[in-house]
């Protein structure tokens, strides 16, 4: 089920999420953490890096699994998720690159399941905490509307809206790859705890659709209602279109 936390702004929400991640790392030094790319979680990663430095926290046994990777983008391209995760997670948190997994996304991958990544996650003991953002169309990872809720890691096709939204990281929309390898919604639902962050009015429709019942595959975020422990961290603007009174936690 989904619980909702509404914070005054992104700074407060990111601080809470960073604190929760740090608490988990202290309690379970070999925790397995699922990390998202996109602008939304970056501040939480920065704040977590500060806490790790301040407390000299042991990060040597952690494992990280990224949600997704573009197909046909070289790993040394600054917007490949290998590069983004290295820049925002691996280096600031001071972990060894061998502790950080990002899906391989070979140029010749075709649409369909990619089993090895889910097997790697299972072999690591499963994900303790999965961080998520959400797209304007409700996608989580690159699970676009229509993706089956039980999907494993697979090759997915980006919608035009997603390519447009992500074109801000590239010189043009044509440069945004149309295909990506993404953890499936089924993969995400296996995590022991999931945290979705969303800030700003551009996300308000996606949040309303994710909390609208019943869950439907045309609204990927609504699949999180099937998760055993999922909390949405929202600012007022992202929460504006839904009455979450009965879902709220302190
Ligand atoms: P954003 O992307 O964090 O850059 O808004 C979220 C997403 O598309 O999942």
Automatic annotation (TrEMBL):
Species whose genome carries this gene: Enteractinococcus helveticum
Coiled coil feature spans: none
Cellular component GO terms held in the UniProt record: cytoplasm
GO biological process, one term: N-acetylglucosamine catabolic process
Sequence ranges assigned to domain Glucosamine/galactosamine-6-phosphate isomerase in this UniProt record: 12-226
Name under which the protein is recorded: Glucosamine-6-phosphate deaminase
CDD domains according to UniProt: GlcN6P_deaminase
GO molecular function: glucosamine-6-phosphate deaminase activity; identical protein binding
